[in-house]
């Protein structure tokens, strides 16, 4: 996919080294095409890593995409250079009058806090509300999925006795849903979280549909408003060594952390991970862009309602 992103964004060179085609904004401007406009609210602490993971997946179709990165105004990232944030990120006030074909809202390292205790809760819920009238389809990932389900539908989250950590097998509940076009009967997704939402709470709400889940890791994907919103509890976007980095970080801190399940070859960290989720991750993002963004968005993006 020709991605219209700033030429000096670090992800550009990182992905070119993986032989992934990324078109920067200079070249994209020469194509006479209306690109899909995608805005990414990146709440993860390692911004550059998350940018690269998402761009890797958004680069898998022939559609041209223009990406804006969004940050909260009331929270300063401690793990990403200030210069990077100033150069590549916008605050909500700069885009509140804009319209977008798609939006992605990432997870955040605040899941053990009550939602209302998060210092950017008021701002992020304002963005959630704005997305409903200014974006064709929105992906809420991990903490954002829990936050969106709570904000819009009152779905509670629950603390787990032990971290849900590893790569888990999932099933498709709605095989006719285009989001799963090309999926196998079973597929794998990484999870890394201390909290969960429960199927029994979601099934009480008529507007919500659990379209994929796992016997071991629970609810995976919830759809609302005919695909205008997807709430995804796992991390299909994770690169091969993300869980490894999280595991080694926690070990170095002396935390009580188990090996990520179904992840290392022979359960041996020195042998590296077995990557079994990459194909379905690419399908997930390309299906979302094709069936729920490109085919649903109006040609005049200002007509989104």
Overall description:
This protein is of the alpha/beta class and 305 residues long. The protein has one domain: Class I glutamine amidotransferase (GATase) domain (Rossmann fold, 3-Layer(aba) Sandwich), CATH 3.40.50.880. It contains nine helices and eleven strands. Strands 1, 2, 3, 4, 5, 6, 7, 8, 9, 10 and 11 form an eleven-stranded mixed β-sheet that branches. It is globular and about 50 Å long. Residues 25-32 have low confidence and may be disordered.
Summarize the structure.
The chain has about 300 residues and is an alpha/beta fold. About 30% of the residues lie in helices and about 25% in strands. InterPro entries: Class_I_gatase-like (IPR029062), HST_MetA (IPR005697), MetA_family (IPR033752).
Secondary structure elements and pairings:
Blueprint lengths: L2 E2 L5 H7 L8 H4 L7 E6 L5 H12 L6 E7 L10 H7 E3 L8 E6 L15 H14 E7 L1 H11 L4 E15 L13 E11 L2 H5 L4 E7 L3 E7 L4 E4 L9 H11 L25 H17 L11
Parallel strand pairs: 1-3, 2-3, 2-5, 3-4, 5-6, 6-11
Antiparallel strand pairs: 7-8, 7-9, 9-10, 10-11
If you average the pLDDT, what whole number results? 90
The percent range for helix content is 25-40%
What kind of oligomer do you see?
single chain
Helix/strand order, N-terminal first = EHHEHEHEEHEHEEHEEEHH
Structural class, judged by helices and strands?
Answer: alpha/beta
Q: Please give the domain count.
A: 1
The number of helices is 9
For this structure, the CATH topology is Rossmann fold
The Cα radius of gyration reads 18 Å
Beta percentage is: 15-25%
């Amino acid at each position: 996919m020709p991605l219209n992103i700033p030429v000096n964004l670090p992800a550009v060179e990182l992905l070119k080294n993986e032989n992934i085609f990324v078109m920067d904004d200079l070249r994209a401007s020469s194509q006479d095409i209306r690109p899909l406009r995608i805005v990414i609210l990146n709440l993860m602490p390692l911004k550059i890593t998350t940018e690269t993971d998402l761009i890797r997946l958004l680069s898998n179709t022939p559609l041209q995409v223009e990406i804006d990165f969004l940050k909260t105004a009331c929270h300063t990232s401690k793990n990403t250079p200030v210069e990077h944030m100033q150069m590549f990120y916008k605050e909500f006030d700069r885009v509140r009058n804009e319209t977008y074909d798609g939006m992605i809202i990432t997870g955040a390292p605040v899941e053990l806090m009550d939602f209302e205790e998060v210092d950017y809760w008021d701002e992020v819920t304002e963005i959630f509300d704005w997305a409903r009238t200014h974006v064709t389809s929105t992906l809420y990932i991990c903490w954002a999925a829990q936050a969106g389900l709570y904000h819009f539908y009152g779905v509670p989250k629950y603390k787990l006795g032990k971290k849900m950590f590893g790569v888990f097998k999932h099933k498709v509940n709605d095989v006719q849903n285009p989001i799963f076009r090309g999926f196998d009967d079973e597929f794998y997704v990484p999870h890394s979280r201390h909290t969960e939402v429960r199927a029994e709470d979601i099934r009480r709400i008529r507007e919500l549909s659990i379209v994929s889940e796992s016997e071991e890791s629970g609810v995976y994907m919830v759809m609302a408003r005919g695909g205008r919103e997807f709430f995804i509890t796992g991390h299909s976007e994770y690169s091969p060594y993300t869980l490894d980095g999280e595991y080694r970080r926690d070990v170095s801190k002396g935390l009580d952390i188990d090996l990520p399940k179904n992840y290392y070859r022979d359960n041996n960290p020195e042998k590296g991970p077995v990557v079994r989720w990459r194909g379905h991750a690419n399908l997930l993002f390309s299906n979302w862009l094709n069936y729920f963004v490109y085919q649903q968005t109006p040609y005049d993006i200002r007509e989104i309602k």
